[in-house]
Amino acid sequence: MNTFIGVVLEGTRIVIAEITPEGNIMQSKTYLSAFFNQESALSMIVDSLHDFESSQGWKERPLAIGVGLIGRVDPVNGVWFHMDPDWSQAINFAEAISNEFHVPCFIDNDVKCGANAVRKWGYGKNTQDFIYLYVGTGIAASIVSNGVLLRGANYNAGEVGHLRVGVQVGVRCPCGRMDCVESIASMMGIDRCARFLRPYYETRLHFPDKDTMISADEVFRLARAGDPLCAKLVGNASEALANLIMNLVRVSDPDTVILGGEMVADGFLIEEIRRHLQPVTMRFVTNGVVLTKLNPRLINLLGAASIAMDGVNSK
Amino acid sequence: MNTFIGVVLEGTRIVIAEITPEGNIMQSKTYLSAFFNQESALSMIVDSLHDFESSQGWKERPLAIGVGLIGRVDPVNGVWFHMDPDWSQAINFAEAISNEFHVPCFIDNDVKCGANAVRKWGYGKNTQDFIYLYVGTGIAASIVSNGVLLRGANYNAGEVGHLRVGVQVGVRCPCGRMDCVESIASMMGIDRCARFLRPYYETRLHFPDKDTMISADEVFRLARAGDPLCAKLVGNASEALANLIMNLVRVSDPDTVILGGEMVADGFLIEEIRRHLQPVTMRFVTNGVVLTKLNPRLINLLGAASIAMDGVNSK
Q1: What is the ipTM of this complex?
Q2: Is A54's pLDDT higher than 90?
Q3: Domain ranges of chain B
Q4: Cβ neighbours for B282, distance < 8 A, ≥ 6 positions apart
């Protein structure tokens, strides 16, 4: 049997997996990482892939490598434009990887990879108009309209973490604006808001030092137990995500909104979100707001492998 | 020479014009109207067209009629689905008009007509990724991505007047949500906010009775003169529109944002909007936020004629 390699680059780690054509994860390994620019990220991915091969080996013969990257990616030419507004150096990422490992490499933005997984193995099979909303360390969306994934004039469509949605906490986003939804409702946002709101609410939440992110799972658990700060954090996050979803529904008129990512993985937040959804706004979203049936924590990794499969098949 | 008839149905009026293939308006007439459902709107449009023909006559031989309608329209089958969430009765609008006047009739949503005019005669000629944002009685957008106009699963894409964008006044939108951008930054919104905020700010603004809309032109004039209420209204509206634009830029990543509609027609508001735009968010909008060179007050009417032209040419 042939397999495919999926790689995702996240804010603080690289995950590599060997995945079957049916989307089953045969083995995977997580590498903690820190990188300062795209060249160093590329070199860390190369090192990690070499380690994976030497320490674990492949179960089968991998046909191709798919990599999900942060930021702006040109999937046709395999070029990674940038990972951050401040770090911008277009590099021929796919070519560098395939030269190193002698198999074809395909790349795309991580959340756009996730949407591809949704189309191949998830709810996306049955709809031409859906939104895949990723809520993890950050927030981003893939919008599919009439069967086509929006990419934009500069491969930057779907960066919806930077929408303002009407929930005001008073936190500044790294992008420079106040109260972007990502600053309120992502893992990063929960961490930021918890520290910002700590003086104003009683809490039993554990605050690690600033290099370690506050555990969203702990925030959810304490919120359910009535902890005032955590209840406020969950209330803000769920209202902000509901408003984001309703904003996006007005823009692209999907029939299905599919949630993925670590923040929604345990099924708690989606129930809170649904309470804030307004029927008039949501009336055409006939399949509703649903949690992906694919593993919400690994969906972008599955997607990275899925673009490798599609890439090989289209050659 | 042949001509085309453009018709737009707006909240309180019907405008009819005879337009050349180059987009010149040879003659036009405005009919004040009130209608309660789609059947009555159809019958008013039929009556108005008959009046136009008998009172003015056509300058040339009209080849087709194009009608821009409020709400959800299926342009392929000529079906008008609904004008309002509460009034929904799909009718075969195009067929009814073409049977009555013995020329082909084509229909679309009014703001989607406007985007077609932008592509045919305006800035849209040079870009595959743009947003046409209409700010008039209400607010809506046409989003073109990779050359394709977004329509959505139910012909409802682009109803962006109902986005929440982070400006909070405390007004309830007819849709049921608080502080939708349309309730703050459209002609309707200016009227609503002026009445709502009147007790809190000094002003020399004239308040007509509730059946007559407050003049946005007067609000702009007084704001420039330092009137406290009007300055607040313009400040809220321009910040809300800037936030709406930045939200939409994050969703679809256009290279151009084109404004049209009565609210932006005199060029004042766009300057105020630009002050609130943040460079990081706008960095890929390389052609900027521009006022349409087509008449901003008549752009949807031009668009109605333009869909008639395209309809005839594609047959």
Answers
A1: 0.86
A2: yes
A3: 2-118+298-313, 126-291
A4: B246, B249, B288, B289
